[in-house]
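lol forgot to send this yesterday, sorry. struct tokens for the thing we talked abt
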């Protein structure tokens, strides 16, 4: 006779109820645990989202300060006349070509050709460039380079190739000795100048 058969009817009923309760608890735990895990995962996601939201809010709070600093830098560039301010890239490169041609001609140089180079972005500013071939005497070349260095808006010499001319044109009876053939690549920074309509629209949006 096993132990179960030795139990009294009342003890058997209590044991049966206990087993039933245990089975119910096991079933409940099987459904509750995944819910608890899901709630924990959801809480973690909410906490992570809250952290990201806090970071975004902090960045948004700094935005007016950054915009003010950018505006101050732009005003400084304008006040010192360091950048060109045409309304389009084509106008800016045309103005750059004219500036360089005027400098060379003013220093007794002879412009032979000009060619627009590809524009690029540099630190939030547009950098425009031209390639110029010209002829000038040695002393004139020194004046041209000095004028480029003093120019406002700023001009930058990206590349220069100087070749001394030692030829004598008998047909034209012209002496080219003492002159130089120069190829120079120059660049300048350009910021688009807002048109009156754009400025008015911007002002209307700010009010």
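and heres what i got for the seq, position by position
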């Amino acid at each position: 006779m096993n132990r179960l058969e030795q139990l009294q009817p009342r003890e058997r009923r209590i044991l049966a109820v206990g087993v039933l309760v245990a089975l119910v608890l096991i079933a409940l735990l099987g459904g509750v645990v995944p819910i608890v895990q899901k709630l924990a995962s959801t809480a973690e996601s909410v906490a992570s989202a809250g952290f990201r939201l806090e970071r975004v809010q902090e960045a948004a709070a700094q935005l007016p300060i950054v915009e003010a600093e950018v505006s101050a830098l732009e005003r400084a560039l304008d006040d010192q006349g360091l950048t060109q301010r045409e309304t389009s890239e084509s106008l800016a490169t045309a103005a750059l070509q004219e500036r360089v041609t005027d400098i060379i001609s003013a220093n007794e140089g002879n412009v032979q050709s000009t060619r627009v180079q590809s524009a690029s972005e540099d630190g939030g500013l547009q950098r425009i460039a031209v390639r110029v071939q010209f002829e000038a005497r040695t002393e004139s070349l020194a004046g041209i380079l000095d004028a480029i260095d003093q120019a406002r808006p700023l001009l930058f010499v990206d590349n220069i190739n100087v070749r001394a001319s030692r030829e004598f044109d008998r047909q034209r009876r012209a002496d080219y000795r003492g002159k130089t053939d120069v190829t120079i690549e120059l660049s300048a920074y350009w910021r688009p100048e807002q048109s009156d309509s754009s400025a008015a629209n911007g002002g209307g949006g700010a009010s």
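Helices lie at 3-6, 9-80, 89-106, 138-150, 196-206. anyway ping me if u want another try
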